[in-house]
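Quick one, T. Sequence first:
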Amino acid sequence: MANWKDVLINLVSDVEDHYDLLKYRLRERLGGRDPIQILPYRGYGSQETLYLKGRVLEDKDIQSATESHTVWDNLVNMYKRFNSKEIPYARVLATFDGARQQVVSDIEGFFEVYIEPPEPLPTDRLWHTINLELLQPVRDGRPPVTAEGHVLVPPPDAEFGVISDIDDTVLPTDATHLLNMARTVFLGNARTRLPFKGAAAFYRALMRGRQGRVTNPLFYVSSSPWNIYDLLADFFNIQDIPLGPVLFLRDWGLTEEELLPVKHKRYKMETIQNILDTYPDLPFILIGDSGQEDPEIYYEVVRTYSDRILAVYIRNVRRRLWRADEIRALAEEVIEAGSTLILADDTYTLAQHAVEKGWISPESLPEIKAEKELDEGPPTPIEKLLGEEEKEEGPTIVINGESPQETKQAVERGAIEESLDEGDKDSQGPPKVIVDGEEDN
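Structure tokens:
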């Protein structure tokens, strides 16, 4: 017998689908003639299969962020993003190097392309282009609708891959506080939302690896809705963060599986598993934050792929002591599973560990440190309006999987101390250093 919740969810989802389809047909009958666009999202693949997701929407003429944009401009653009008009059951033709595939969008306008390259892919670049053309609907008086989708395929000399959270990891959204998150997301733009200290330089160093070549792939996972994809793309370009597929966990609407996008942990785990299974010979570094469930999710990944996770890097965005205790317990389990977990207040501490392990070049440290100091500069006027980051507790830095001698050397050279700003040093005394489950204050 079906669960009543499942029956209710299916019923509500069916009602919403029929309502969306009715709205679309009504717009068409009333002469809806707004231009249509194909919005491809960066995909990923291998020599065997290329995967690309995209969406067919009415073009709302959303403007890219500029320095002159006001809070009102940002709010109007965000309204346009969330008031999207999807084109259901649109037919899209995807072509790549002679291979062709027709796909049909779903009720929300989403489509997925799985295409097999007819010839071996060149190995001297990361990105490959899939051409997209809208076959139906065709609106009179409008030019053909086309787009280019870009798919990442790691070359054979890739040393490792990186899977990174976005929310409160690459950029601050304060995802653990809904009011603060809404204020930042809706009133800010790609030029006013700065990454955490030194993040862009650290990610560039990871992409270049120890050999200094652009070969290591980066994948980004976000709990944000697909509607802000263009905002994230602008943010990455403006902040010079390496590009990579951005994989959103859910569409923020009613579906056959849930009324709201609440099954965060399950979807994130499945998304990460898909990436790891696509590249069975590639080790990975996982990067997240302490605010939501990243440490718990990454621990499950380490358990499942114990021989393929080089390290788990967690940004310390929640300073409450009870959360640090939880992460400490997880760190001990991560060690037992064969990997390393580090909780740090900024990217410079993580970068020093990556240098020690030979994953990035030592020459990248000055750039990361300089960018970290730049990111610590005074807030812009819009950032003052949005509010400054709150400091709840003194940070806890967890260094696991290292020998006590290695940790003492890190303390002696100042790696631990440099991760704290002046306010943190005075708030809660010296940080805790946890080595294989033993504290050394």
